[in-house]
């Protein structure tokens, strides 16, 4: 049964053009071809990325945050209250007015105290400014290095300047070490993002981020063992070209450098629109959809690859909408929050009453981030 499924999954007609077999892609005469087994190394490399990230955030990003004066804001913790905690964990983080009244009777607190408890409890679960800065620093470092490395891999290749050469000799196209490592490192990094997504900063486009990571992993993996490597290197470099700008804008935002953040974000928006909404659909997708049909009939792998590219393109359109809306607000000076950010709530400016049995009065609070507390992420 398993062998039958294995044989069907690797059936040549699924992944290769007609009249070609996996035997045509076996290493010979000093020429090395991509193999699915090459991708096994990406899982341990992903774990290595997580380890490197931990030490990077601890010994590089944290001192950098201190240097840029990234400060944590003091957050008042919600006092222990089993009744409210149980509701928070099982029923919801934002009780309706009727639920507030019920919780008020059950806990012995006033309705206002119950609402204040839930505000504080929600703020406790929100990621700290330092956590956001460290995450942005790590991604900025990787994307910048990846973009430079990717350009070094493809800039001297003829298919970088003439898209038709992407398919010259396909699929009998051998690989070189630089392409191998570019692929393995990129795929490992996206595996690491998927592994850490539960602990990373969660935003309103969390589901879209998961879809993006899964689609990217599938695309990179498929393009490797189906030998779409030339197209794959172009696509990866194009995506990396704007991501490091976004992460650097976030870093300056968390450091309170508002003007620098805004200027970098405008540059990012321009690069993103040009690369994702112009170059990708009208050059890259045209290359992967039109040119192959001049060489061989369409097959499952052709449809599969371009379908996944279509998923990414839809995500880019969604993120471009958010980016353009934010860019417009930047220019007009109206932006105070990221379109996707989970805003930290402030306490009432009036004197607080004792909460959950605590006898002391609380003083007015201001727990929210200053004006620009956005966390710009479109996400590739």
**Gyration radius from CA atoms, angstroms:** 25 Å
Instruction: List low-confidence stretches.
Output: 348-380
Q: How is the biggest beta sheet arranged?
A: none
Q: What percent of residues adopt helix (DSSP H or I)?
A: 55-70%
N-C termini distance: 38 Å
Q: Given the structure, what is the number of helices? A: 12
Structure overview:
With 380 residues, this protein is mostly helical. It folds into 2 domains: 29-68 and 127-332, no CATH class; 82-125, Arc Repressor Mutant, subunit A (Orthogonal Bundle), CATH 1.10.10.60. The chain is 61% helix and 0% strand. Helix 7 runs antiparallel to helix 10 (229-254). The longest helix has 33 residues, at 300-332. It is elongated and about 80 Å long.
Can you describe this structure in just a few lines?
This protein has 380 residues and is mostly helical. The protein has helices at residues 2-9, 12-15, 42-67, 82-90, 97-107, 111-125, 129-154, 177-196, 206-225, 229-254, 258-289, 300-332. It is built from twelve helices and no strands.
């Amino acid at each position: 049964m398993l062998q039958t499924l294995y044989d069907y999954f690797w059936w040549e007609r699924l992944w290769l053009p007609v009249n070609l077999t996996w035997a045509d892609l076996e290493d010979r005469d000093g020429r090395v071809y991509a193999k699915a087994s090459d991708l096994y190394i990406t899982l341990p490399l992903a774990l290595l990325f997580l380890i490197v990230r931990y030490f990077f955030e601890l010994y590089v990003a944290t001192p950098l945050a201190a240097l840029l004066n990234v400060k944590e804001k003091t957050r008042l913790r919600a006092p222990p209250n089993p009744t409210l905690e149980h509701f928070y964990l099982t029923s919801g983080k934002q009780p309706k007015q009727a639920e507030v009244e019920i919780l008020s009777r059950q806990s012995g607190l006033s309705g206002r105290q119950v609402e204040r408890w839930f505000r504080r409890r929600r703020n406790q679960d929100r990621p700290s400014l330092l956590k956001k800065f460290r995450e942005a620093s790590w991604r900025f470092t990787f994307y910048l290095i990846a973009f430079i490395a990717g350009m070094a891999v493809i800039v001297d290749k003829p298919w970088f300047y003439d898209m038709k050469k992407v398919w010259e000799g396909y699929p009998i196209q051998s690989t070189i070490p630089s392409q191998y490592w570019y692929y393995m490192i990129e795929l490992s990094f996206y595996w690491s993002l998927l592994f850490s997504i539960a602990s990373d900063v969660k935003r309103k486009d969390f589901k879209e981020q998961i879809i993006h990571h899964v689609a990217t992993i599938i695309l990179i993996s498929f393009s490797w063992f189906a030998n779409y490597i030339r197209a794959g290197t172009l696509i990866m470099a194009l995506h990396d070209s704007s991501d490091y700008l976004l992460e650097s804008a976030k870093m300056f935002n968390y450091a309170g450098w508002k003007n620098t953040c805004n200027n970098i974000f405008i540059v990012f928006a321009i690069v993103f629109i040009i690369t994702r909404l112009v170059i990708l659909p009208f050059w890259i997708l045209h290359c992967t959809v039109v040119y192959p049909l001049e060489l061989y009939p369409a097959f499952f792998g052709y449809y599969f690859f371009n379908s996944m590219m279509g998923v990414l393109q839809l995500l880019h359109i969604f993120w471009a909408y958010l980016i353009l809306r934010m860019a417009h607000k930047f220019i007009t000076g109206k932006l105070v929050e990221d379109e996707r950010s989970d805003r930290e709530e402030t306490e009432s400016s009036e004197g607080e009453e004792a909460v959950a049995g605590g006898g002391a009065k609380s003083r007015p609070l201001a727990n929210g981030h200053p004006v620009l507390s956005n966390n710009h992420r479109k996400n590739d």
